[in-house]
Amino acid sequence: MSNIFKRKKIQDTFERRVRANDREYNEKFQYANNCIMTSKYNIVTFLPVNLFEQFQEVANTYFLFLLILQLIPQISSLSWFTTIVPLVLVLSITAVKDATDDYFRHKSDNQVNNRQSQVLIGGILQKEKWLNVRVGDIIKLENNQFVAADLLLLSSSEPHGLCYIETAELDGETNMKVRQSLSVTSDLGDPNNLAQFDGEVVCEPPNNKLDRFCGTLYWKDCKYPLSNQNMLLRGCVLRNTESCYGLVIFAGPDTKLMQNSGRTKFKRTSIDRLMNTLVLWIFGFLVCMGVILAIGNAVWEKEVGALFQSFLPWDPPVDNFLFSAFLSFWSYVIILNTVVPISLYVSVEVIRLGHSYFINWDRRMFCSRSNTAAEARTTTLNEELGQVEYIFSDKTGTLTQNIMTFNKCSINGHAYGDVIDILGTQQKRVQPLDFSAWNPLADRGFCFYDQSLLEAVMVGEPAVHEFFRVLSLCHTVMSEEKSEGELVYKAQSPDEGALVTAARNFGFVFHSRTPGTVTTQELGKAVTYTLLAILDFNNIRKRMSVIVRNPEGRIRLYCKGADTVLFERLHPCSHEVMNITSDHLNEYASDGLRTLAVAYRDLSEEQWEEWSEHFRGADKATDCRDDRLAAAYEVIEQDMMLLGATAIEDKLQEGVPETIAILSLANIKVWVLTGDKQETAVNIGYSCKMLRDDMTEIFIVNGHTVQSVREELRKARERMLESSRTRDGGKEVEAQGLGGACAFGNGCGGGGAANRMPDESKCPPPQAPPPSLLESISGEFALIISGHSLAHALEADMEREFLETACACRAVICCRVTPLQKALVVELVKRHKKAVTLAIGDGANDVSMIKTAHIGVGISGQEGIQAVLSSDYSFSQFRFLQRLLLVHGRWSYLRMCRFLCYFFYKNFAFTMVHFWFGFFCGFSAQTVYDQYFITLYNIVYTSLPVLAMGIFDQDVPEQRSLEYPKLYEPGQLNLLFNKREFFICIAQGIYTSVVLFFIPYGVLSYATQSNGVPLADYQTFAVTTATALVIVVSVQIALDTGYWTAINHFFIWGSLGLYFTILFAMHSSILFSIFPKQFHFLGSAHNTLGQPVVWLTIALATVICIAPVLAFRFLKLDLKPQLSDTVRYTQLVLQKKRKPGGRVGRGVGGSGVASGSALGRLGRGGSRRSGYAFAHQEGFGELITSGKNMRLSSQALANFASRHSSSWIDTLRRKKHANSPGMQNTPPTGDDSAASSQAPPLSTSSSVNSRQDTAAGEAGQQCNEAVLTHSPDDIALSMLRCADRETGGCSTGTVQEAPFVWKGSGARICGASSPGPPPIAEETSSGD
């Protein structure tokens, strides 16, 4: 029997067989049921699995081992409870946290699995939970219901078996998609007929390809091919369809949605991984110390201890000095284990929990519109938020609102949309036009502000009327009249909806359509046009046309599409209008608007009849039908007359351009991974200022074969180096480029080889140039790559070339990518760049990417909650990411690093005293301190101050963190806690232990009390050393604390006072009388601390421990300060200057600025972008004209990214990349200067722009500048800002410094809608 099941499992790996209405047959194949499970544990597995995961932490295993040792009486000198209580506490806290997280996963799974579905069982529709649905069942879906499993569409309530679905949960697209059943099953709409259906489907096995399905239906001795157009995938929502029936093909984990989700991964931070390594090192160090002391014990017992055998014999198990040394070794391992106390991990969890609450409580990350607060859904990744280098973002719903608005237009050479007053200056848009006063069918949600366009419509300008007539006729929108005068448009994409709505408000109302007619109301008059043909849109044509006959019998072709395509097909007499319109298009595109051109052509009856015959022949062709139709379209779409152009704004979420700009200044690279088509993604890239006209070049990789993709990537790298050589005068880059020239060619020959296709059978694949060479080139580049090209680029032999090319670019946009490809791109960067990655998205198609990245962020938006449930952090707006990283992330990293440095320091200072004491106690494993002090040191005396620092500490205020994004870079480079910093802390701790042992030992050896009694006794020494230790570490944490609160004061000085209180209590006669065997230090505290010499000894030890630290920090601050030091110092200077006379005049935006309008827009430089995003696939023209009643619906900035000049951080960053594993260590070349003003040149292979744009430099010269310089340190901090902040002009921020301060170059924001945080040097006087 097992062989049979094995054979059937193997069969499912090659094909799947499903028979309708036959559960018994289908169950033989052991297909998965429809129950999904994203949780990690259940009641049975939680304890063992969770403990297994926790004991993967090296420290937990280490403490378990110590606990076992302490249970052995012969070697334990400490009580077992000193280890088991903290260990159980840590395991319990972590287990509760993990259980809570998994509970919410179970809750989400149960919510989905218990949804109701109508299943056809025995000819009767019965309600079943989703988890009870099986492969082969027939399910009935109703409008607005989620699809329960991957279904083969059998029939629909719509004519011809059509149904309409929304796939936002799958691919993020909110436009409608059409699915159609086979004609042979479309009439099986009755449950009785469906109950008799016994067809068998043979198809491909489960896979993650959302856009492909291959199978065959066998029924009634016939077979019918199946494609993706016949499938309804789990996660889709049925829209605008009353009902439909489907056959379950894939269920539960086999569905394409779950196949793309990826598994839940256990995430650890880089600090966690480093701590595991350090614990191993410390354990090795501990073993070394134990061996040294054990050897010392053996020597002492042999040479000296033998003399004491007569009155101090060995304990019974010990019979020789070697066995004594063996036991001594394990005793010292127990005593010295406090170099890594278990309280470290308790404290880390508490600090992370506190940081998570700060994120949850942050009112500046609360969205009042959606009533959604930010949520830290995990507590283990907070500090890694301060180390992010790469952000991978979805587009739809994450960067954009997916709301299109008709913004501007150009008609017959006249531009409309900007409100201009009599003096010619642009006015603020205050009050939108009121269309309802003269147009009862106007959409009240439509806003337009230019009165002149409405006046042109009302006075009857022919060109304006014809322009809006095109918009009302040339589309595939469906209308639905819910009530009298209330029209609802169902558009395949928001773009088309926006254009038709604009025409509707200006009096040209699209009312209804049939397969052969389109009815409109033109200025209140009903007009019906005969629809002769629809020349449908596709990604190659980039245009759409309709041919209509008006009531007078005149035939006209109306066309709208990408201007680059349409302008080539205009009549020569339109060239004058074309030139003017082209200028308008450049202006619109520079504002990030989605543009397209509008044209028409009159046709005679003879022309129509002749072309119609040609068209019908192409439409009926059985071979090369698409090519024949395209050729027919090409014939008729010629000699058109240009009417004008439209400009649509794809509304970004609030603050997206500013956020990307700030993140770019923090050296965080943003990659957009979207399922949308290329034109849409590029438009959004310009809108959010990821792509800019002043970029050096923008490369497009769109190859369909492995070889073409490799060639395009190679050309991109060559252009980067060529541009860098040109800019840098051919200095170092040229010299190093010669050495790597072979890497850009195909390796087959000389200079001409680059122009030939390489022979892969003879030549190895071209290699990427050295990464340090690519990353150090000057100039700013962007890379745009399509999904089919990305599939080749992610192959093993090419992924490194793609990665190095992409990482050399400032912006990367991947279009048409599947959810799995998103995860593969993230995994590629994680694997090779050794950088912290963050993925952010809002739909189910982003889940795999979110789970793969080091940090996953979910946007609680319009596409469900799948992304939020799989994320580590969630909020409602992309702009909150800036605060999450630059404030909370940076502070969390800073606090955790300071906490760890201090923790290791104080514990080495505490523990190493035992080591030195071993040389003076005969290596007998005697402890220096009272065992209660050892127990309470990390739990009571020093725990609260370090917790306060780890939770509340700051280096600069949150406002400065946002103003100076460069403050974020130390976290990316891991500067604040690494192996070097660890050894510095250890060295300081060892030095402190030496002082704390030998100073009291030296002084007390010869000191006496006032009555002449010597102080050289063990208890006095123990109390003196312990007191000096507590005072020294308290002073040290006071020096380490950068931000003082009342809590810090209370914890530090309160812990010191608590130490003395407990010390005197434990050494009192009261406790001794109750527990005489437990408290041996009777009266030691009173006697010891009553001696002046003891306090002098403590003071001397404290000074010797702290003085070198103070001296080092003052020298470092003076000779090599960090940026945070400079920011704090400058802030202090500004505060001092404000005190005498109050607030000084504003240095920016004051009287020195001539006019806000002086900062004009940057010229487009000819990089025009089509807004023709009406469809993500072939349009619906054929369905409309075929006579099928089709209904559908849809739901509907400035970049600072200039390169920074060299600084100590940049130098260290280059070293980091140069030393990455598997990468060549090539000296960096080139100057990371600001981006060139040269616009991206146009090339058919790799770029989209072709002209020079010098407006950037001109605009930069018009910015007002304010500089603060403070002598003698020559600290110069300047911020450049535009004068007119309200108009969203050009805002520039620069931070400069003296030779010892961080260096940064100017950075510019152009077209921003909001000014961002104010610069630090804003409030300065001219005398500064």
Count every helix, treating DSSP H or I runs of 4 or more residues as helices: 44
Rg of Cα set: 37 Å
| Biggest beta sheet attributes | 9 strands, mixed
| Strand arrangement in the largest pleated sheet | 14-33-32-31-15-27-30-29-28
Number of strands: 39
List low-pLDDT spans.
1-11, 730-769, 1141-1168, 1171-1177, 1189-1208, 1221-1328
Helix content: 40-55%
Shape: elongated
Quaternary organization: single chain
Estimated structural class: alpha+beta
Q: Which range does the strand content fall in? A: 15-25%
Question: What is the mean pLDDT?
Answer: 78
Distance between the termini: 90 Å
Label this structure with key terms:
1328 residues; alpha+beta; nine-stranded antiparallel sheet; 44 helices; 39 strands; disordered N terminus; disordered C terminus; transmembrane; metal-binding; ATPase_P-typ_P_site; magnesium ion binding
Indicate the topology:
Blueprint: H1 2-12, E1 16-19, H2 23-27, H3 46-54, H4 58-70, H5 81-113, E2 116-121, E3 124-129, E4 138-142, E5 150-156, E6 162-166, H6 168-171, E7 176-180, H7 191-195, E8 200-203, E9 215-219, E10 222-226, E11 231-232, E12 237-239, E13 243-250, H8 256-259, H9 270-303, H10 321-335, H11 343-361, E14 375-376, E15 388-393, E16 400-411, E17 414-416, H12 451-459, H13 462-473, E18 478-483, E19 486-490, H14 494-505, E20 508-514, E21 517-522, E22 525-535, E23 543-549, E24 555-561, H15 563-566, H16 575-590, E25 594-603, H17 605-619, H18 625-636, E26 641-652, H19 656-665, E27 669-673, H20 678-687, E28 697-701, H21 706-728, H22 732-739, H23 741-744, H24 771-775, E29 781-785, H25 787-793, H26 799-807, E30 811-814, H27 819-833, E31 836-841, H28 847-852, E32 855-859, H29 866-870, E33 873-875, H30 880-918, H31 931-941, H32 943-952, H33 958-963, H34 969-972, H35 979-1004, H36 1018-1040, H37 1046-1066, H38 1069-1074, H39 1084-1089, H40 1092-1119, H41 1123-1141, H42 1181-1185, H43 1208-1218, E34 1242-1243, E35 1247-1248, H44 1255-1261, E36 1264-1270, ...
Parallel strand pairs: 15-27, 15-31, 27-30, 28-29, 29-30, 31-32, 32-33
Antiparallel strand pairs: 1-8, 2-3, 2-4, 4-13, 5-11, 5-13, 6-7, 6-12, 8-9, 9-10, 14-33, 16-17, 16-26, 18-19, 20-21, 21-22, 22-23, 23-24, 24-25, 25-26, 34-35, 36-37, 38-39
Helix pairs in contact: 3-5, 4-5, 5-11, 9-10, 11-30, 11-32, 13-14, 17-18, 19-30, 21-22, 30-32, 30-35, 30-36, 32-37, 35-36, 35-40, 36-37, 36-40
